[in-house]
Structures are given as C-alpha cells and as structure tokens.
Design a protein that fits this description.
This protein is an alpha+beta fold. Helices cover 23% and strands 31% of the residues. The two termini are 18 Å apart.
C-alpha cells in the first residue's frame, strides 16, 4: 500500500500559528492540533514499508531558524488562503533539496484513498502526485493559516522561530494529519 507523506518543518511552538489561524479564519479550513502549521519540504507517495526508513533518516537532521517575512493572501487556488511567507535562505533551500532527494529514492506512483488520513479531495491527491512541479526552483516556503476573508492582514505573526524536521501522513488540503516520525 502507498502512503501520502510530507517531510515538513514544524515550529517548536505551534500555538502562535494556531491562535493566529483561529483569529483570522472563522470559517472553512484553519489550523488546529489535527492540522499542524508546517512548511513542506517534500511530499509524495511512498510505499508503506519505506516510512520507517524515511523517519529514521530525518530524525538526525538539525533544527533550523526560520525568518517569516510577510503575511499575504494567495488567490491562485479555488479558495484564497492566508499565508505567512518565509525567507528562502541557502540553508532552507539545501534542506528542501535534501528532503526531495530522500523522498525521490522511495517514491511510489499512484495511490488510492487509503494513502491519506480521512477523505480527501481529488485536487489534494493530484497536488501530492504533482508536487515536483512546485519544487526546486519553484520552492516557495510558507505556512498556510487557512481560508482568507477580506482585510485580514493586519494581525501580527511570529517573525523568527526554530523549526524541526518531521514526517507526516497527509490529510485533505495537504494537512499534516498524522505524525509518522
């Protein structure tokens, strides 16, 4: 069986992002203890047997300092989302490339609904399958806070934080639904 996984950076304190998400996003998708704030480094489908090996590998990766630069509304999808953009440093780019390389060594093609936690939309499954198209030169690190409503960009957000590498099984909207390592 294949599993939809995400190698991510999780802030050492998730509460500021969850609180901000709940203040800004009163309807629709928002962050919670079941939808962790994260920066995706790499995602895709892998064989279930590879999950432990991937988790063991990333367990030794060092934490990184993240600098958040601005809050924006991303209107490229069918539902606008509020994002906290992150500065793309050389260290963060190298970590993204390292995660992509690791995941590509285990990549499996195709998956059914059991690859995810809970029910997912076709657009989520397609995005995971096609993640490479927004990687490498197109890598744009950010935290998604939730669905955007008008005039929401006046709130303060964390500017600098420490983040740890983790492995999650994905849920709908590419949420970090179940920690695997």
């Amino acid at each position: 069986m294949n599993v939809a996984v995400d190698i991510v950076l999780i802030p050492s304190s998730v509460e500021p992002f969850i609180s901000l998400s709940n203040a800004l996003c009163t309807e629709g998708f928002r962050l919670s203890q079941q939808a962790f704030p994260h920066i995706t480094l790499a995602m895709g489908f892998v064989n279930e047997g590879a999950v432990q090996e991937i988790a063991d590998e990333i367990r030794n990766w060092e934490s990184v300092v993240i600098q958040c630069s601005q809050m924006v509304i991303d209107s490229t999808g069918k539902t606008p989302n509020i994002l906290v953009q992150v500065d793309l440093t050389n260290d963060l780019r190298k970590l993204h490339e390292k995660a992509m390389s690791l995941l590509s060594a285990f990549r499996a093609h195709g998956a059914d609904a059991t690859a995810f936690v809970g029910e997912v939309s076709v657009s989520t499954s397609n995005y995971v399958a096609d993640y490479d198209s927004c990687a490498y030169a197109r890598f744009s690190p950010h935290f998604t806070l939730g669905e955007a409503k008008s005039d929401m960009l006046t709130h303060d957000y964390p500017k600098s934080l420490i983040a740890d590498v983790a492995l999650f099984q994905l849920g709908d909207r590419c949420t970090c639904a179940k920690r695997l390592g």
